[in-house]
Each structure stands twice: as structure tokens, then as C-alpha cells.
Amino acid sequence: MRGFQRWLWLVMLASMANAFAVESTMPPHIIFILTDDMGYGDVGCNGGKFVPTPNIDRLASEGTRFTQFTVAAPICSPSRTGFTTGMFPARWHLTSYLQTRAGNRACEQADFLDAKAPSLARALKAAGYATGHFGKWHMGGGRDVTNAPAITAYGFDEYASTWESPDPHPDLTATNWIWSPKDKVKRWERTGFFVDKSLDFLRRHKGQPCYINLWPDDMHTPWVPADDVPRGDKPENFQRVLGEYDRQIGWLLAGLKELGLEEKTLLIFTSDNGPLPTFGGARAAGLRGSKLSLYEGGVREPFIVRWPGRVPAGRVDERTVSGAVDLFPSVCAVAGAQPPEGAALDGEDVSAAWLGKPLARTKPLFWEYGRNNKSFKYPAGRDRSPNVAVRDGKWKLLVNADGTQAPRQSSGQAELYDLEKDANETQNLAEQEKAIAARLRQLALDWRRALPKLEGK
To answer: In what order do the strands lie in the sheet with 265-271?
Structure first.
């Protein structure tokens, strides 16, 4: 009997050693936190003064903060598509937020992201990752669009999502709308709900690398911080919602530590588009523009990468220009996954910058928003931008698709800014730098003309 017990003990030790060896050689767990409608200046580490954000700031102090990161669109659905596919969203016929079928047609867009599009989750799943999506989706489903593909069609093993999805979680959707006082999980509890789902997913997949979309939506209006607070887009509501959001980021970090996964997890933090309202530009840290604008306030976002022991701690990278479309190839590089064969991704691998080596981008970044004046919403005054933009190095040019400036401008055919010297886009240098303006104008218009047209449009 003693011999058998010794043998059993040796088998158990060997099994534990093998499990440890597998876990120690695994690629990292990856959690992609995509905030909804967060301004560049909302967080303390970017100069935000609305309310302390110690836990988000901790991500920056324990990781690297990037100041030159931009999303693929200044509005929800196309922005999320850029992260998901590694491609400019209009290539997949997404131009604005997904809504009713009639509204989508008016915006010259599809009703949902084609499930045949490249998907980061699908690529990681093929590389052995368990994949989960917990949070807002908004790439198909909701309103009168009842035939959107399931979230699993994009490579996710599990999900729990909000109303704007093909299969919203019943605890979040007591009524047929984004939010209701009748919801079992109240609006101010949603981030906590999604954080708990994410931690549980990790707990249940020990020994397997996990990729998680953690996409909360409480930072999007309406700001509802508690049961006894009247709904409204007031600064005091915003402050309380942001404070609770930050607390839940702290709960996520505590959960990772409890699971022993703190040093085994690559955590990426950003947002889908700029803020609205901006409170006089303060939420965009003084950057011109807002949500619905191609100026920096609409597309430049906080971007923090944390991976203890691998990503330099306390570093600020002000040199690397990167965009949402870069997430796909960069995460694949870190995870040892392969993008789908033949996929013409618009992004490039910037993972070396995440690990401490700033990069010079080799391809321009492009944006478009606003194909007509009837179906698209715009910010007022000087925050309304032309509807096509390109960034190449330090230069950013904006122009309308017909070759003109925005309607409010009386002369000229483009707006050109040196973002190294003028991130707030106050000095149009198109007249002083005519050769650069002409080259970028042609580049932007050629790109816009090459975008595929929606069938029937």
C-alpha cells in the first residue's frame, strides 16, 4: 500500500509539474478593455481633472502609455469593426453607428459586420485560445435587424452582451431598449457584471490562454450613477460614473492577482471614439473635435498596454503613431497566432513598441465620416470636420470627399496640420506646405474613391 501511495504521489507531482510547465510556456492571456465614448482627457494619467482615476492610472504606471494612438472612426460601430478586423471599417460597409435597416441604408452601410470578415478572436481561437466577449457589441443586431450573425460566428466561445447585439443578455435587457430601470443588472452595475464574467472565464480556463473582449458601456450617455439620481448628461453624473468605472478596473486587477495571472496577462486599455458632450473640450484634453468629428478630439484616445515584466513600466511613448487597425496584427504577433491567409489587413504590427521600442509607421492611416448631411450627425461649429482624413508621419490632412473643405470654410481645398507642433489643429498649413498638402490630398481622395460601394448604392 505504501508503495502504491508513493507511486500515486509521484504521479500527482509529475502532473502538477507538467501543468506548471504548460502554463509557464503558454502565450499570455489577453484582455482588451474597450471603453465606450471616453475622451482623451477623461483619465488622470492624461491630465484629466474630473475625478481621480487611480486604477486606470495604475495601468499606466505599471505599463506603457501611448499618446499618438487613434481609432478607426469617430463613432461606435465602425470603430469596433476596425479593432475586430484590422481593416478600415468602410471596407466592410460600415460608416456610422448601426441602427434600423432604413437608417443603415441612408448611411450607405450594411446591417451588420459580415461574418466572413477577418476576426481577431477567430485567429486567436485557431492558435489555441479560449475566447470570450463580455460587454457591448454593436456590430450587428438590435432594432429591426433580426438576422445578424451570432457573436460566436466571429470566433468567440462565450459572450454576454447588451441590447445592441444579436443575442442580448436577459439580465441587461428587461425591455427592448439600451437601458431600463427594470433591468436586473442596473446601469451603474454593468461594468462590474462584465468584469465578473471575465474573471470567471479565466478561472474556468486555467491551463489555456484566454482572449477576452471586455467592452463596458456605462461611460456612454445616459449617465446613470445610482437608482436615486435623475438621468441626465450632467457633469456630476459623469463624475460618479467615471469613478465607478475606475473602481471596477481596480476590481479586475485584484481578480487577476487573486488568480495568480497578474504577470501572465497582457492588458490593453482604450476607447472606441471621442467624448460627447466634451464639457468645453475638457474631456478631450483641449484637442479640437469630439465624437462625430475627424479632428483629434474625435479619434485620439487613451491607449495603455500593461504586461508586468514584458511591457516597460511607467513609460510614455510619444513617438509611435498607431491606430485601431494595428491591434489585430500586433496581438497576433504577441500571441503567436497567424492572421487569416490572404487577408489584406490595413494595420501593421506595432508590438515592438508595446515592448519598449518605438516605431516609425510605414503606412498612412485613413478615416472617413459623414457621407451626407441628412443621415449623419455632426458636432457644431469648429468641431465639425471635413469627411475624409489621412495621417502620414507628423502630418494630418482633412478634406471633403468632393475635394473641398468643410462648408464653413470660405477658401482652400484642404486642412493640413503638423501634429507634432499643433496637436490641437489650430494652424492650417495647407498654403505654406503646398507640396505636402497636394500629395496627402490626392492620397486621401484616392483612398476614399477606392472604398467599395454598398450594393444598390
So the answer is: 158-161, 130-135, 210-215, 29-35, 265-271, 303-306, 64-66, 315-317
